[in-house]
Amino acid sequence: MLELRRVTAGYDPREPVLRDLTLTLEPGESVGLLGPSGCGKSTLARVAALLHEPYAGEVVLDGEPVRGWRHRAPRAQRTAFGVVFQQPRLSADPRLRLADLVAEPLRANGLDHAARVAELAERVGLGQDLLARRPHEVSDGQLQRACLARALTLRPRWLICDEMTAMLDASTTAALVAAVEAYRAETGAGLLAVGHDRVLLERWCDRIVEWEAGAGRG
Ligand SMILES: Nc1ncnc2c1ncn2[C@@H]1O[C@H](COP(=O)(O)OP(=O)(O)OP(=O)(O)O)[C@@H](O)[C@H]1O
User: Fold this and answer.
1) Would you list the domain boundaries of the chain?
2) ABC transporter domain location, by residue (predicted)?
3) Domain 1-80+156-218 has CATH 3.30.70.920
4) What distance in angstroms lies between residue 15's CA and the mean position of ligand 1's atoms?
């Protein structure tokens, strides 16, 4: 279970983006988060993925309150999350070949990677020939497939997809959603998907949480 309990967070403590926000995801549940631009969806996604420390409140993972954030989060909690952002070019090191990009979390954890990278590439529909290329040599959709593969490397129990498909065409969107759903069906992982596309999120998720303007502000 993933719980955000009375979370207040943002970029200026005098003017937080989220105020006193509570959200609970049951194990394996998929929740779509809709809301107007700027209401704080990405901020919430980053707090839920332990990437942004809130000013107040708690994130509780399987009954265990989170005590550290980003690299200071305990490894077991940090690796419980796989995160995919909207703009793959901002989250991919331009110097790395896609195979190394996908392998980054494996390397960081001292794990063997060759076979696993090939398996992950297949899972997200990334041709083996593309693995040798660098980000500037592939399309946004291909790079996003690599970013999804990277998010799955450590077999996370939660996937946080922040507008993962916002820049992509319909067929790449469908392929990435299908890859996420296949992973979830196999592992029982839960999902928090942030987006603007109501039709997509309603089709994709078990439940929709909708913010009205200012609703995150308690
Ligand atoms: N790094 C940052 N520093 C300062 N303010 C920020 C930062 N990131 C976001 N904000 C501000 O926080 C507020 C919420 O931003 P956030 O990205 O969480 O909204 P959002 O609902 O995801 O928006 P969108 O749907 O447009 O992506 C906005 O007013 C934004 O300008």
Assistant:
1) 1-80+156-218, 97-154
2) 2-218
3) no
4) 12
Residue type at position 13:
P
> What are residue 31's DSSP bridge partners?
192, 207
Q: How far apart are CA 147 and CA 124, in angstroms?
A: 10
Mean predicted lDDT score pLDDT of the chain: 93
Burial class (CB in 10 A: 0-12, 13-18, 19+), 132: exposed
| Residue 173 · residue 84 · CB < 8 Å | no
pLDDT digits (tens, 9 = 90+) for 66-109: 999 998 999 999 999 999 999 999 989 999 999 999 999 888 87
DSSP state of 2: E
Q: 């790449």: which residue's tokens?
A: 172
Can you give the length of the chain in residues?
218
Contact present, 47 and 216 (Cβ < 8 Å): no
3-class secondary structure, 214: coil
Ligand 1, atom 17: closest residue by C-alpha? 42
**What is d(CA 6, CA 212) in angstroms, rounded to the nearest whole number?**
18
